[in-house]
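fwd from M.: "can u put these together and see what the complex looks like"

so here's what she sent:
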Amino acid sequence: MSSTVRLLAVLAWRNLWRHPGRTGAILFALALGVWSMVSLAGLTRGVLEGQPERAIANLTGHVQIHAPGYRDDPVVEHSMPPPGPELRAVLAAGALAWAARVRVPAIVVSERESAAVTLVGIDPAQERGLSFIPGAVVAGRYLESVDDAGLLIGRKLAERLETRLGWRVVVMSEGADNELADRGFRIVGLFDAEPEAIETGYVFVGRRAAQRMLRLGERISEIALVAPERDRIDSLLERLRAAAPDLDVRPWTEIEPLLVLTEELSNVVLVIWYLIVFTAMSFGLVNTLLMAVFERTREFGLFQALGMRPRLIVGQVLGESVILIALGLALGNAAAALTLRWLESGLDLSAFAEGFEMAGYSPVLYPEVAAGDVLAANLLVLVLGLIASLYPAWRAARHVPVRALART
Amino acid sequence: MHLKNRRILGAALFFVVCTASAATSSKAEVDASAIVKAAIDYWRDTSSYSVARMTIHRPDWERQMTIRVWTRGEEQSLVRVVAPPKDAGNATLLVGNEMWSYNPRINRVVKIPSSMMNQSWMGSDFTNNDLAKADDLLDQYTHTLLATEVRDGHKVYVIEARPKPEAPVVWGREVVAIRDDWILLEHAFYDQADRLVKRLTTHDIAPLGGKLIAARQRMQQAESPEEWTELRVLQAEFGVDIPASTFTLANLRNPR
Amino acid sequence: MLLQLAWRNLWRHRRRTWLTIAAIAFSAALLVFMITIQLGAYDMMLESALRTYTGQMQIQRAGYLDKPQMRTSIAAAQALAEHLRARVPEASVAVRANGFALASSGTRTYGVPVVGVEPEHEPGVSTIPALITAGSYFSGPAAQEALIGATLARNLRVGVGDELTLLGTGRDGSIAAAVLPIVGVFASGNPELDRNLVQLPLETFQEIYAMGDHAHAIVVSGPSLDAIERLEARVAAALPESADGLVLLDWERLVPGVRQLIDADMVQSWFVYVVLIVVVTFSILNTFLMSVLERTREFGIMLALGATPLRIGALVLLESALLTAIGLAIGVALGGAIAGYFRVVGFTFPGMKEIYAQFGLPGVITPQLSFATLTLGPAVIFAFTLAAALYPALRIRRLRPVEAMRAA
């Protein structure tokens, strides 16, 4: 049996190269189709699925814990005590990284302008591996400790406030006693972030510095954490809720429900695109195979007259198809890999920045390769391609030997 | 929104609220902080009552308002509008860092939220913060005596005030000129690149309420000559007895 | 003569021809469908951006857009609006006045924008009047009532029937104050509006803010997005002499992000289309190639009989063009029919309704059918396939009669 397979493979391979131009054309079509599937999936994931990634990295995390009421009304009075030993144990066991933050609405004032922002008091070490901020400082320095009273502000916010690195600004908010809480902070670092709303809407300071300013004592506004896998957090959620029954424990899917919808939508769009490209390719594939079958009608007749079973003829044609598809897939995947590698540092679409901003997207697009997408594209092309090839194969096997032989 | 005339009212109070018992005769050449303190003590006493007219000038319009001001100690003040008739009765109460606004037409008291402390007060060039933080010049700054000049026969101290690192002050530095009788002549505000942003200057010094005070002062935006606010003191009394009940929400709502 | 020959040649291989036609028809239908949907989606996007609140165009005093100050207002705004309504009857015209206030519920106070609207005309330019989630819309142009966004209502902890205290500054610098019962709560889907906006009937607003007959914007919307430019010209022409110092701002000035969003999407879509077209082109390139290769002998005879290679090339090109034309005709008919069907029933897919519902939109795309949307895609396909057909046609020049006749 294996020798038959080998024979079929050799036959199919030789047959393919009888018309190198034709094979080349269909190969190119297949490769281009596969390339477009995989790279478009990468870009779409970059835009759409990058959204949860970005939101999670921005400040959301995979799970957030707040005092009840904070999500509706994120003010200082909805604060909570720092995590107790029980909650800490669950966090330490179940989260890759977690951070306790102070997060309140505030006003930043410079000599000439003021802006409404969210003041975030962070533990600079805890934020590593959790949020974007440790890696986002582009000028000056990152915060050094929870006591660090240096302020990190977005570069665009600094421009808007007409202030700069090293200068002081005043941050005003409401203290835990509901009285004005304000103090001056020196800007020690400027950060870049996407989307722009983050860059202009958030300022960061050491957590204890924020607590002192807001007269919060040890209290915090939120705990954010990242889990090993963002789609498998149910049991962690249960344990967190058990450890903190009085607090509001929410997964990212509830904090950013629109992202979940967008992701589902992107799946639909990708599948539609796969099917469209496949259909376009399959016309070429079937047509090419049909041609190959017709011009070899005599040959197939001869084989059959010599006692080759129709099954083997079908196998021969399918073999050709498999080789074509496999080569197309290999070329297409390789080209897509190169394309995505080339775009790894980001596809800059800042010419449309305002538009992207409006849609909540970042103007720089980073492709995201999801193994599932690549696998789906390849399997779809292979399986549906073979199914489409059944028709030419069946035509080849159907010819009655004598009639076929008589044909010139 | 432009940040305007922060601390202008503090400066304004230099002349609105003065006391006759200040250390006018003190000749001791002490350090700069002491001079500033003396100047603040000169205008801020146990209590005061005054009437002033405020003119807000813009390129295309101008508006006047008459206000009555009561102060007691460092923490309490009440401002009530008397004219124009439309705004008469509107009042602002300040106790410490907290601030409330009262409007007679709707008979409601609204507490000014922290996020609004930087907004304009009653449509003027003062921000709410300017009113609430009038006495910051004393404890939130370090002072240096830059020069001692002689103007109109008076010795004038030119003092630089730099905000302390944590001070809720946006300015790079402020420069005040204080006469040897503790009247403030000038108060300039510089940004952190040391460009002048605005300057308060005293135009008239007149005897009111029993002593010499700055009777007319103008806050001028350095970058737009047609934007200024002027305060003219019409009447002043110092050291008068003002009951503590003046500075309560009940009194804000139902003036006696 | 040549045409007849080409037509006959086409049907020598019915199956192959039909398969090729099917490929072209498929891609043409798809392109027609996608382009009509795409433009329909842009319309919906614009609708969402403009219909909610902004309107298609606004008349403002010059300079107000960049620096919205209360004094930069339009005198006798309602008279001007009446004038426009009389001159441009097809347009919806509504006057708005904008202010700022401390909005207080007693326990809570927020600084918010306050807008005076004409209750009888506002529904023509904004969807907010139709998106009341609790209570009702204003009962009249001078009703002492306030309408507030859902998030703001939650933050203020108020509902329908509760009193809202407003404290701000009037146009003349006087103090603006009012206590109004909340008559309705709206959820526009635009978080910014829902969190911030307080609306009052225009005359109530004008009284509170000492506006006299002044206002800040005259919002104009026409029945259809296609007619925006014409409407703009009509409105501009209808502005009286007395409107000196006023400017007519179109939506691209009011919300510049939307144009960029559309442009960005346009670029992405055309990338997708071109990939699709190239895949199809290479799929059918083989058909054209084979039709030359397998007829080498035939062409040899024709050459020997005196036909010039140019003429034979023209024949081959004509065959390809005919093939493509048939495919395109079927494709356009099919795509147009599908688009037409969805134009009647509306196009939607899972998830879309949920996303758009948040913006107060039906989540149903109406495909945009026009000569351009029907022909643009097919025209590009035609260009590509002709380019593909050129290669086999040029090969004919290389044929030598004698060798060619011996071939095959």
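replying to her w this: Residues 14-54 of chain C form the longest helix (41 residues).
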